[in-house]
Amino acid sequence: MSEISELMWVEKYRPQKLQDVVNQRAIVERLSSIVKSPASMPHLLFAGPPGTGKTTCALALARTILGEPWRDYTLELNASDERGINTVRERVKTFARYATQRGINIPFRVIILDEADEMTNDAQTALRRIMEETSRFTRFVLICNYSSGIIEPIQSRCAVFRFSRLEEKDVVSYMTSICKKEKVRHTEEALSKIYELTGGDMRHAINLLQTSAFIGDVSIENVEKTAGISSRSKVSEIIDLSLKANFKEARNKLVVLTEVYGLSERDFLKYATEEIFKLGLPNAEHAAEALAKYDYRLIVGAHPEVQLAALLAELGRIGKDAGYRGSK
């Protein structure tokens, strides 16, 4: 394990075997049956919320099927960082082309494409052809948050696995085991607070746990201090300003959040949806329509900064109609 993996708890405590994956029992059972007969394994599509075990399952599957030299026969790419058609044609195709060069006990090479729903349509079309041409000696595992972002010709070539958001008891139990191994003092209430702030995202929960432990005991006070600089709390502030029609300040804070803190536009919309429905607006259906509209525009490639600014302006009108005076 690398030094970075040792430092980052999210990697240090990533399950290595399918049986160790938190929750997702039905999916683990299906994948375990595939492992028993790897030659018949189809291409796979893992869809579901962030931090629910999709990448962990893909890596554990490759490790189980390919054995000790699994890293030599596995290509892992983050499609949101390398999502152009050139990446698909060059890196993926080059790796797949040499798939015939493998050990005696290696049934095929594995290509894991994380955040595949962020790939352009042209890149996905190129990927479909590569999947067809190399299916004899390569298996693809596509990972996405939204299966709707994957073109139908690819979906039809994959076995689809839908991951569900993790329950509080599972996340708290896993964090408790980490605290014991790291000899970190903690309270049950603080771990529950971490779950509340991260919404079932195990990766985010472990990162928040580690950050809280860095400044002392994992207490509600330290968790709230750490979360005070988190993206979710900043989204709440932006939504509050927008509904009060304070467009200029809301937009400035949005730019800082996306450009400085690196929050993606899709994550902003996800957190914004959660925050708006917590407020119980009398015209919440109008807010839902607006969020869906701008989410669709981002999916089809509209300019993110322009679209999110327009959303903030529309939320101002929605807040005015609702007589919004501020969150309680």
Catalogue the unreliable spans.
1-5
The CATH architecture classification of the largest domain is 3-Layer(aba) Sandwich
Number of helices: 16
The Cα radius of gyration reads 22 Å
Task: Give the helix/strand layout.
Blueprint: H1 3-7, H2 9-12, H3 25-36, E1 43-47, H4 54-66, E2 74-78, H5 85-97, E3 109-114, H6 121-133, E4 138-144, H7 152-155, E5 158-162, H8 168-182, H9 188-198, H10 202-214, H11 220-227, H12 231-243, H13 247-259, H14 265-278, H15 284-299, H16 304-322
Helix pairs in contact: 5-6, 8-9, 9-10, 9-11, 10-11, 12-13, 12-14, 12-16, 13-16, 14-15, 15-16
Notable characteristics:
single chain; 328 residues; alpha/beta; Helicase, Ruva Protein, domain 3; Zinc Finger, Delta Prime, domain 3; 3 domains; 5-stranded parallel β-sheet; 16 helices; 5 strands; 9% strand; globular; disordered N terminus
Structure write-up:
The chain has 328 residues and is an alpha/beta fold. It folds into 3 domains: 3-162, Rossmann fold; 168-227, Helicase, Ruva Protein, domain 3, CATH 1.10.8; 231-322, Up-down Bundle (Zinc Finger, Delta Prime, domain 3), CATH 1.20.272. The protein is built from 16 helices and 5 strands. A 5-stranded parallel sheet has the order 2-3-4-1-5, sandwiched between helices. α12 (231-243) packs across α16 (304-322), α13 (247-259) packs antiparallel against α16 (304-322) and α15 (284-299) packs antiparallel against α16 (304-322). The longest helix is centred in the last third of the chain and has 19 residues, at 304-322. It is globular. The N and C termini lie far apart (47 Å).
